[in-house]
Write a structure and sequence with these properties.
Distance between the termini: 42 Å
Structural class: mainly alpha
Number of strands: 5
Strand content: under 5%
Helix content: 55-70%
Oligomer: single chain
Shape: globular
Amino acid sequence: MTPAGGSVFPALGYNPIDCFAYVGFIRQAAETGGWLLLNPYTTSPQDGRYFLPLFSLLGMLCRWTGLDPFWALELVRVPLIFIFFAVLWRFLATFIPGQRRRLFAVCLVAFSGGLEFIAVATLNAWPPRLRDVIVEAISNDQGWSTFAALNNPLWIAGLTLSLLALRPVLKPAGTQRLRDWCQLTIALTAAYWVHPYSGLVVLAVAALLPVARWLFGVPNWPRAYVVGAGPALGVAVAFIGAVALWQNQDAIYRATAGKVLGDHQLSAFWYPITLGAVGLLALRGWQQWLRDSTPARFEVGAWTVIVVWMHTSPLFNGYHFVFHLHLPVCIVAATALDEWWQQFPKQNWASQVATAFVIALAFQSPLAVTWWSAQQALAYQIPGPVMAAFQRLARLPTGRVYSSPHIGTLLPAFTNHRVYVGHWFLTPDHAQKQAQFMDVMAGRLPPAVWVDLLRQDSIDYLLLPQTHPRLSWPPSARWRRPPSRSVRIS
């Protein structure tokens, strides 16, 4: 498709706002060849203490091969998905010994989902003040299904490493060996550095599982678990904590790391929509697990409850943990699906229709998610003049850019420049700087104050609309590197 009005589709397959940040870090790693990165969404002084191994690795790949960072982020999804399902197959052997039932679990993880399409189809019937709430809560970007989560390469890597770390924790009590605890230490550390929220899920499950055993009086609670898991977690947490302490000595890193605390959670109220028929299968599966006293029932149950507790938390932005919920739900749901599959030929026609309907609802999600995601992607377009500005800035010496927060979010993905204000999460004092930009554009900020601000942050380039009320920009000099760090206002 060709967008109208000279606009351009960004080369992204996932949530644009976050992916622009991902590509910005990849481009920086490709340019510098370093593993420690700067935050490109601020012009304030910083040491560069961001350690993002997946993006640095992709940046190195771009540096060695000349691959475009946008393509690197898109293409890495393919091998990561294959690795994820290979790890998942081995992980499921802990809970599902039979290959057929394990295959059902893999199919549920890969292709099942909720009933978001019903909410989207009926959106106009809801009161206007509720529409935004519904769209945000059930959005694919939350990762309610694994199919939706696999759009994000960072989440794929986080899920894979968390499975590697959780396998020793969730194995039948007392069966762990030294190598299992070593695997926990290494995988937990890697999961945290690749995707901190995945690391926190592993840490929460590993630390709270003994507490849950004690609270519920689970018999034969093995001391070996505490003796093994304690040192494994201790070594990982000590190493992560030491590096995090060093990183937090930098004010910019500390400002963004502190944003993990917040009250943006997602309620279990949305489960009938976001889990849908998969949730019904899981409830049926739990009946069978409890009836048959399945050995792993307590561990998988605790894993599920802990993820629910984390994503509904009003303290540390629980929406970051939602994409970990679908996995344990599908593991239990596979038992019910396997049972229905075996009983299907023996059922009467009415029961067969009902069973087929529930299964169809469980597996329609990939089509709905793909359609909805395509509509969202086609709606996101970059104006042609903005792309022209990016292309011109990309040819100029690396510097600091003052522009709108929206353009600032995009610019580090296309150039090697840093911006004064950009990505909402990565820009310190984002709300204040956004309000300040609006004052500049409306002419409410005294010019002398603005000049002092630009000089203080050593701004090299201004990228502003040509219709600014107090500025007159000759077309040939709209993007000019100010001599001697001065800014001329006419």
